[in-house]
Amino acid sequence: MASGQMSRDEALECTCCRHACHVLLYSETASQLFGRIPIRYIVLMQMRFDGLLGFPGGFVNPLEETLEEGLTRELLEELGVAVPVSKEDHVESCFSPPRSGTYSSSSRLILHFYVKKMEEEQIREIEKAAASTAADHGLEVLGMVRVPLYTTKSGGGLSCFLSHSFIGVARSQLMNSLLRLHLVSPGDLQEALRSSQRTHAESAQNLQAAFKLTGEQP
Ligand code: AMP
Ligand code: MN
């Protein structure tokens, strides 16, 4: 078990901790981008209310429900579909890294992460429901997004996606899952990360220049 991680049972022993469960839903697909780039897998994330990318899920109260019942309840609110998640889908539990200035030992947050493979048709149903019947649509969730796993000729795809801003440890959860599930090879991920750092540096320059739009000098 990696450092900072704990088993599901150990995590549940902390009754004064807050608990949150999130899930990566994915499926295989035969679709091809521009009719030639294999998409291979649909991996779902969401644009959150705070403008950060994250996984569907949320706070769960283990005194009132099992982690998986709580996660399924959260998914119904955010996706508009009751996606049953079970103990077998659990991947890891860990303390959320404390954000500077907000650390409080009495209310530490434990994150439980799940991964569930689905059929492509089920993923498409979720995407439809998330944009129509989901109670949280346009509120806590601004939209579902698919993670591009490929790299285009101009270097776009996974590398650009990874250069966005993510909630907490969501970027690591995504990358760990891509490797563990063999959706991306370590070499390809390394290459995407290298390119992502360049994109990130360019974005920083763009942001600096954008100050001019506000009439202010950077
Ligand atoms: P949510 O209701 O989905 O925002 O999640 C419940 C809590 O977990 C909030 O405090 C979030 O900031 C936090 N959270 C959500 N996703 C992650 C993540 N991937 N890593 C760390 N914290 C997260
Ligand atoms: Mn949520």
Short description:
The chain has 218 residues and is α+β, with helices and mostly antiparallel strands. 33% of the residues lie in helices and 24% in strands.
Q: Features of this protein?
A:
single chain, 218 residues, alpha+beta, Nucleoside Triphosphate Pyrophosphohydrolase, eight-stranded mixed beta sheet, two-stranded antiparallel sheet, 10 strands, globular, binds adenosine monophosphate, binds manganese (II) ion, NUDIX_hydrolase-like_dom_sf, nucleus, 5'-(N(7)-methylguanosine 5'-triphospho)-[mRNA] hydrolase activity, snoRNA binding
> Count of DSSP helices?
6
Give me the secondary-structure category: alpha+beta
Helix content: 25-40%
Query: For this structure, what is the CATH class?
Result: Alpha Beta
List unreliable stretches of 5+ residues.
none
Q: Provide the succession of SSEs.
A: EHEEEEEEHEEHEHHH
Nearest-integer average pLDDT: 94
Largest sheet: 8 strands, mixed
Number of structural domains: 1
Overall number of strands:
10
Radius of gyration: 18 Å
Ligand identities: adenosine monophosphate, manganese (II) ion
The CATH architecture? Alpha-Beta Complex
Give the N-to-C terminal Cα separation.
45 Å
